[in-house]
Write a structure and sequence with these properties.
By secondary structure, the chain is an alpha/beta fold. The chain has three domains: 110 residues, Sandwich (Immunoglobulin-like), CATH 2.60.40; 232 residues, Aminopeptidase (3-Layer(aba) Sandwich); 48 residues, LysM domain (Membrane-bound Lytic Murein Transglycosylase D, Chain A, Roll), CATH 3.10.350.10. The strands form five sheets. It has a six-stranded mixed sheet, with helices on both faces. β3 and β4 form a beta hairpin. α2 packs across α7 and α5 crosses α7. The longest helix is centred in the last third of the chain and has 31 residues. It is elongated, with a radius of gyration of 27 Å. GO terms for molecular function: N-acetylmuramoyl-L-alanine amidase activity. It catalyses: Hydrolyzes the link between N-acetylmuramoyl residues and L-amino acid residues in certain cell-wall glycopeptides. Belongs to the N-acetylmuramoyl-L-alanine amidase 3 family. It is found in: Periplasm.
C-alpha cells in the first residue's frame, strides 16, 4: 500500500514539472533609440536563448530553448532602420526559432530583466550598427575664449523611458516617463529662448537610456549643470508636494571609490584632468576637490529651484534633501533631481498631466536655475561677460597671516558671498600668499 502511494505521488509530482518545462512567450515590443533598436519579448520566466547572425541577406536568428509561443507576433509593427520583417517557426529539435530580417549588419546584445511593476520577465535584445562610429556632437569647450563667450549648457534628464515607465497614476493611469519628457521639453524651450543659454536632452523620445549613460551624455556636451526630472509615488495616495534633491555625502563617497578604482580608464576625467597617470593620493585629492566644489554649487542652485517650486505649489520637504541617486553622481557636473509631485495622488496626477501646470513647473525650474547662474555665471560664458562688462577691473589682494574671508570682505566693503563667487571659493579656507580678486562694489 505504501509503495503504491509512493508511486502515485511521484507520478503526480512529475506532471506539473513537464507542464511547466516550457517558458511562454506572450509578445514582443520594439523601441527606437537614436543609437540602437530595442526588442523586448515578454516571457513567463527566465528563458535560455542563443543568438547568431546570417549574411547575404542580413538576418539575426534567435533560438529559444524549451519555449512556446502563446500569441502571434505582430510582424507589421517591426519595421525600422534596422529591421524589415520577422519570421518564426518550431524547429525539429523543439526550439522556437525567431528570424529578424535586417536592413543592415548589426551588433546584437541580449539580457534578461526580472519582473518589475506592470511587467513580468522580459528578454531584451538591443541592435547596434555594426562598426558604428561615435556620435559627433557639436559643442563649445569650457574655455573662456574671446569675444562673445560661450553658451551656458544645461543637461535636462527626463526620468525613465521606453521599457521603464516609472511610476503610474492611480486614476488617469498616466506614466511618469511621459510626464517627465513633457516637462523636460518645455524647460528646454525656455532655456533655448534665453540668450547665452542652451539646453540638451538626455533622451528626446520614448526610449530608455542607462543611468550612467545619461551622465556621459551631459559630459559629452560639456554641460555646466545637470537637472533630472521625476514624478514621485507612494502607497499613501494623500502624499503630495514637490522635492529637490542633491547628492548625499555617502553617495559621493561611494562614487569616488568607484572612480578611483577605475582611474586607469582614460575617459574618467575630473575637471578635464585625467586620473590615469596620477598616484592614488593625488587622484584622491583631485577628486575630493572636484566633488566638494560640485556639491556646493549643486546645493546653492537646488535651493534656488526649491524656493521657486514652493511658489507654485506645496513642497514635500521644507529644504533641499540629500540622496544617493545615480544620476547625481558625476564629480565634475553640479546636479539636482526634481520630484515634481506625487503621481500617486489623484489631484497631483491631474496637475502633472496638465499642459498648463507642466509649464508652471518648467518655469519654476528655469527661474531657479537662471537666478543661480545670474549670480554665479561660469567663467568664459556669455552670461559672465555680460555681468562683468560694466564693472571696473577687480582689485587684487595678497592674503597675509591672520586674514580671514570675513575680515577681507569687511575691509573692502564687499560681501563674503561676492568674494567667494569672484574667486570660485566654495568654503572659508584660504592660505597665506594666496591672491584674491576683490569684486567691484
Amino acid at each position: 500500500m505504501k509503495r503504491s502511494c509512493l508511486l502515485a505521488c511521484l507520478l503526480w509530482l512529475s506532471l506539473p514539472v513537464m507542464a511547466l518545462a516550457d517558458a511562454q512567450i506572450h509578445g514582443v515590443r520594439m523601441w527606437n533609440a537614436p543609437d540602437h533598436t530595442r526588442l523586448v519579448f515578454d516571457v513567463s520566466e527566465q528563458v535560455q536563448h542563443h543568438l547568431f547572425a546570417l549574411h547575404q541577406p542580413h538576418r539575426l536568428v534567435i533560438d529559444f530553448d524549451k519555449s512556446v509561443l502563446k500569441t502571434r507576433l505582430k510582424k507589421d509593427q517591426l519595421n525600422n532602420r534596422h529591421i524589415s520583417g520577422l519570421r518564426y517557426a518550431r524547429q525539429p529539435d523543439g526550439k522556437l526559432r525567431v528570424v529578424l530580417d535586417l536592413k543592415q549588419s548589426v551588433r546584437p546584445r541580449s539580457f534578461m530583466l526580472r519582473p518589475s511593476g506592470q511587467y513580468g520577465h522580459r528578454l531584451v535584445i538591443d541592435l547596434y550598427d555594426r562598426g558604428e562610429k561615435p556620435t559627433v556632437v557639436q559643442t563649445v569647450k569650457k574655455t573662456p575664449g574671446s569675444g562673445k563667450g560661450r553658451d551656458l549648457v544645461i543637461a535636462i534628464d527626463a526620468g525613465h523611458g521606453g521599457e521603464d515607465p516609472g511610476a503610474r497614476g492611480k486614476v488617469l493611469k498616466s506614466r511618469e516617463k511621459d510626464i517627465t519628457l513633457a516637462i523636460a521639453r518645455r524647460l528646454k524651450k525656455l532655456i533655448d529662448a534665453t540668450p547665452g543659454m542652451r539646453a540638451i536632452l538626455t533622451r528626446k523620445g520614448d526610449y530608455y537610456v542607462g543611468l550612467r549613460k545619461r551622465m556621459k551624455i551631459a559630459r559629452r556636451h560639456h554641460a555646466d549643470f545637470f537637472i533630472s526630472i521625476h514624478a514621485d509615488a507612494f502607497r499613501n495616495k494623500k502624499a503630495r508636494g514637490s522635492s529637490v534633491f542633491v547628492l548625499s555625502n555617502r553617495g559621493a563617497s561611494s562614487e569616488a571609490a568607484r572612480w578611483l578604482a577605475k582611474k586607469e580608464n582614460a575617459s574618467d576625467m575630473v575637471g578635464g584632468v585625467s586620473l590615469d597617470d596620477k598616484d592614488d593620493v593625488l587622484a584622491s585629492v583631485l577628486l575630493d576637490l572636484a566633488q566638494t566644489g560640485t556639491q556646493a554649487a549643486s546645493l546653492r542652485a537646488a535651493r534656488s529651484v526649491h524656493r521657486e517650486m514652493g511658489r507654485i505649489g506645496k513642497l514635500h520637504g521644507h529644504k533641499v534633501q540629500n540622496a544617493g541617486f545615480m544620476v547625481l553622481k558625476s564629480p565634475d557636473i553640479p546636479s539636482m533631481l526634481v520630484e515634481t509631485g506625487f503621481i500617486s495622488n489623484p489631484g497631483e496626477e491631474r496637475n502633472l498631466t496638465s499642459a498648463s501646470y507642466q509649464t508652471k513647473i518648467a518655469k519654476a525650474i528655469f527661474k531657479g536655475i537662471r537666478e543661480y547662474f545670474n549670480a554665479e555665471p561660469p567663467l568664459g560664458t556669455r552670461l559672465a561677460m555680460e555681468k562683468h562688462k560694466h564693472q571696473a577691473p577687480a582689485a587684487k589682494y595678497v592674503i597675509k597671516r591672520g586674514d580671514t574671508l570675513s575680515t577681507i570682505a569687511q575691509r573692502h566693503r564687499v560681501s563674503i558671498a561676492d568674494l567667494r563667487n569672484e574667486n570660485r571659493i566654495s568654503n572659508d579656507r584660504i592660505r597665506v600668499g594666496q591672491v584674491l580678486r576683490i569684486p567691484s562694489t
